[in-house]
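pipeline/complex-builder :: batch 7 item 3
reading input block
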Amino acid sequence: MKNSALIFHNRSMAEVLDPRSIELRKKIITALEHGRRGHIGASFSLVEILRVLYDKILKFDAVAPSWPGRDRCILSKGHGCLALYVLLAEKGFFPEEALYHFCQDGALLGGHPDATKIPGVEASTGSLGHGLSIGVGMAVNAGYEKSGARVFVIAGDGECNEGSLWEAAMGAGKYGLDNLTVLVDYNKYQSYDTTSYVQELEPFADKWRSFGFGVIEINGHDVTELTDVLKHLPLKKGKPSAIICHTIKGKGVGFAENNLAWHHKSKIDSEMITQLMDALG
Amino acid sequence: MRKMCLQKIFELAKIDKRVFFIGSDLGFETLKEFRQEIPERFFMEGISEAHVIGMAAGLALEGKVTYVNTIATFISRRAFEQIAVDVCMHNVPVRMIGNGGGLVYAPLGSTHLALEDISLMRTLPNMTIVCPADADEMARFMSQTLDYPGPIYIRLAKGYDPIVSKEEYGFEIGKGIHYKTGCDALLVTTGITLQIAVLAAQQLKEIGIDTGILHLHTVKPLDHVQLLDLCQEVAAIVTIEENMLNGGLGSAVAECLAEANFNRVKKFKRIGIPDIFPDFYGSQAEIMQRLGISPGGVVETIRQLLR
């Protein structure tokens, strides 16, 4: 762990989650209970990012999900979909009951978001490194149409290993798409081990900056900090924005935090569900 | 053919504001007029095929009809996952135009030969594959790309290919053209192999074999109805393609014929690229000649089948 990653690691990120953050995580666990599988760690690190976006930032109409003036939010790290599903259900894009059929035969909601089925999902994702290019296309279109729509792409840190993401970053920088914002869920872990071990990303902020982005690093679990930053976009006029959100994988459940055994779980039984619920308090 | 294709995109862009064009570091001054007259819908991206396809999908998700152009093998090999996930899964109108389909770039070697592009694209749900025979057919086809739903892979040939397509036969995506009747054998073509079939049929006539031609410019969806109808009465069927035998036009026809369970036994042969990387260099015509993708090769194949 180097540079800014270290600074954020040492900073207190152990703040207590507020009731809403706990409630959202409990809903994720409820979906897990029914699907008996899912990416827990990757969903829990995302909750505050998505919560702030859907509560305070994004323009949308759940009754008319295709409203042209809406902001586009693409969860490029599609495996974090449980956090997205919980928020979309809460906002009324589909009934919360759909969460109880997660990953089941014939369900609306699967292990990665499907834009052709799920209202409110802008792009089908799951294979990493796709969402930012799609976001660039959407941001170019919003500029052409002068619709005022903004595009938000949430990428994982492991996802930033993908060359196609950096192709897209170059494209965004070239056009100075200041209606486009990338939020990186920098939880420092990918599937096998830490990002430092598998593929060091540092100096991460400098990378984004050199690709033509305005860049800021924040605590991705701090609702106030997230809100302040997201309310003042673009970070730099005439440039796309990159918000590096320092997060904790599995945030909120002590024994799952920074524990790769909880990156993805299958065959989840009722005992595990109880443990998770109890840990959240 | 390429020139006609690009010219048509510009014409379509002038009449329809949904038309966007994205190239990937194309040749100097390609679509210069488009760039000058409608710069807001003209994009020349870097050598970044994966990104280009994703960006095109993003625009298409917003209701635009996006035409993407670069070398065929870089689209089909390099950006295959973006085509599958971003374009085909969303079933959006991205038109992927592959330069140099087949053996066009023969002197450049196997890295530049798009020999399995048809095979790869055939595996993708929602994909339509069109391989026009010549510039005239390209012109008739392109005007239909504006409102056709879903993605289309368009295979370009070398250019300045002899004009063999006929206006009176019309053009409809997904509908084969019964180019010539014949009661002894049927040649099934796509792309520039129509010209080979035309020459072969003339030579076969001289030796008393009456050969029909079915031109399947659209390899997917395949015109099963017309194919089976025309195969019903002939004894021998030969497919001709400038693509790998694995998974291309010949495979598509074979699958259809195998499941037709004809009462009368049919003789069948596929002519195309065998299971090799053809690193012979030389010219497209020379490699095709070498591999029997030629009028002579077709005549010999038909003679053997009917022996």
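note: The CA atoms of residues 67 and 95 of chain B lie 5 Å apart.
queue -> next item
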